């Protein structure tokens, strides 16, 4: 074997090793359960998840087509006619600018909703989430067995700090009344 300037010795396979073989030890206990096998792609569960993805993709495609038609219609209005004189101004759009803004907002909302549905379906398929119960189980697995246990000492400390702050604030708000001394 090449050693690149250093001397390297290799054990010979023919001679027995002077060390005793290690006894087979038990593998360390795993506290994390092994991952469950994924269902096949054409199972009912997977098709439900992919159905949401493809429904979102279809909705996004339709909203994109509608948006392209609306933009093309607005562009075509501003293009002058072939026979129009060159010294006349190009006709402005016939609608109110607030309606154009409303149309743009509604088209953008359609596009975002389609993308959101498609993303939700894709993520549910990728993470194998088919229902809200699956989502809860997955979230609890990552949080841990204790759930979201609170730190009682930290809560008590925060309560004391807020109470101290409120007392200080109330003292500052009380007007300093001068004491009347009768002679």
What keywords describe this structure?
183 residues; mainly alpha; 54% helix
Brief synopsis:
By secondary structure, this protein is mainly alpha-helical.
Topology:
Elements: H1 44-78, H2 97-126, H3 132-143, H4 152-173
Helix content: 40-55%
The number of strands is 0
Backbone structural class: mainly alpha
Q: Please give the radius of gyration in angstroms.
A: 36 Å
Ends: how far apart?
112 Å
Largest sheet: none
Number of helices: 4
Principal-axis shape = flat
Mean pLDDT: 76
Order of helices and strands: HHHH
Unreliable segments of 5+ consecutive residues = none
β-strand percent reads under 5%
Account of the protein in words:
The chain is built from 4 helices and no strands. With 183 residues, it is an all-alpha fold. Helix 1 (44-78) packs antiparallel against helix 2 (97-126). The radius of gyration is 36 Å and the shape is flat. The protein starts with 43 loop residues before the first helix and ends in a 10-residue tail after the last helix.
């Amino acid at each position: 074997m090449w050693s690149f300037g250093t001397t390297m010795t290799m054990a010979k396979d023919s001679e027995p090793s002077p060390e005793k073989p290690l006894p087979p030890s038990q593998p360390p206990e795993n506290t994390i359960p092994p991952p469950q096998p994924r269902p096949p792609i054409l199972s009912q569960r997977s098709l439900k998840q992919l159905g949401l993805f493809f429904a979102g993709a279809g909705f996004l495609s339709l909203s994109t087509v509608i948006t392209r038609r609306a933009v093309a219609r607005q562009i075509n209005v501003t293009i002058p006619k072939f026979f129009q004189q060159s010294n006349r101004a190009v006709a402005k759009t016939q609608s109110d600018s607030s309606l154009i803004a409303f149309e743009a907002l509604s088209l953008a909302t359609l596009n975002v909703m389609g993308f959101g549905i498609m993303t939700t379906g894709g993520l549910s398929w990728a993470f194998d989430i088919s229902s809200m119960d699956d989502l809860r189980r997955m979230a609890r697995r990552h949080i841990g067995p204790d759930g979201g246990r609170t730190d009682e000492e930290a809560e008590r400390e925060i309560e004391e700090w807020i109470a101290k702050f409120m007392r200080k604030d109330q003292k500052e708000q009380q007007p300093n009344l001068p004491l009347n001394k009768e002679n």
